[in-house]
Amino acid sequence: MYYIGYDIGSSSVKVALVDAKNNKNVAVLSEPDGEMPIDAPHPDWAEQNPEMWWKHLCQATQRIILENKIDPQHILAVGISYQMHGLVLVDRHQKLLRDSIIWCDSRAVAIGDQAAKDIGVQKYGTHLLNAPGNFTASKLKWVKENEPTIYAQAAYYMLPGDFIAFKLTNEIRTTKNGLSEGILWDYKEKKVADWLLDHYGIAPSMTPSLVENFEDQGSITEKAALATGLPIGIPIRYRAGDQPNNALALNVLRPGEVAATGGTSGVLFAVTDRNTSQEFSRVNHFAHVNYTVENPVIGSLLCINGAGIQYSWLKNLTRIRDFNTMNSLSAEVAVGSEGLVNLPFGNGSERMLNNCNLGTHFCNLNLNLHNEAHLFRAALEGIAFSFAYGMEIMKTDGLDAQIIRAGNDNLFRSEIFSTTLATLIKQPITIYNTTGAIGAARAAGLEKGELDRMKAHVNQHDKVAEINPQSDSQIYQDAYQNWKNTLEHQLKKEQ
Question: So what's the pLDDT on residue 454?
Fold first, then answer.
């Protein structure tokens, strides 16, 4: 028997099967072979067609069943992880109205900033634990203001994971977790923040009905079964944004634990039971997967948009075929990249830089000294320095990081990146062989109160390495200080 999990990213759709008896991974694959396109009709916009996600999910599901020669009737339940903060709109006939405005789209920054001024920090700071920002609610307001014909037809807004769940079950529903990432959950009143919708002039009826995690959220329809190969009638039992889900996959569920992710974007996700903060913009606070109104577990999230995408861009630019080659060339260059500095912020406005759209910079480039190896090393260091900078911000907001865990994928496969970060934050980083799709599959088999079962399995089976700080840390600190000085100089120029 099996559980199946999906991870709906902006680059690909991943699917995983885990054994229902022992929680061990059976198979993981992704669709498509390359990366899904992101449309940018205007600078700093980012859109994707949700039907593209669905198409690749169907293909991936059919493949994983076929290639592993399993009986689909042995699949018991579904878990869903998805790219956060996106906006999907459907009409009263459940027809998709426009492409999704996804997480890295910056068009609603000004709307969120104005709402923060109008509402005031005393209100949003205690009720939302976040400024309205460039999140789902503000994106919906943007559609209302700029696409009134489309907005007039809209019956429901959804998060990307809600749309996938809808395609599977024909039920339009969401979760407290999802609403919190749209900045639409009121932590103080413990309900939907209808007052924010009212401020934006949005009808509360557009909010889907709520379902709980680790409980049945709808059943696979005959139509969805035909499209995917899944059995008719099995339940969706879990959905969560990709970062809370990554934290669950890494057993980051308790105060003091931190999950680090180095994908297209970089993320630090720290668990806390505090419902107070001094950072409402640079750090965001979302209901964790194990959040309940009785036990309000919060995930404090700091996002760095420009992370792995910087390294990937360099790979494509230099036509190097693989990241292993890039990492090998990087290792030939000394710590500090011989003065070359990379500010990897070329993927939209950066929340940790107070929504500044700084762009990517390579500074101090010496044409007689620096080559592509220096570019690669500077990029890895620049991303690691960005993570360290983010940790400093989170510590000023009261973070007491006791345990830091990361998945064995993307940037954390680079020894340079991992070692640089561990040395700067002066803490070991434990690496686990798991993925978001595996985490979602395992979560589909959990009941409320069974999270200790997840903990035991992760600790026993998934740990693969521990990255320790270097004893000679001064050269790393010097390089980091040079990077910070460069960043501050560039930020002053933007003011």
Answer: 65
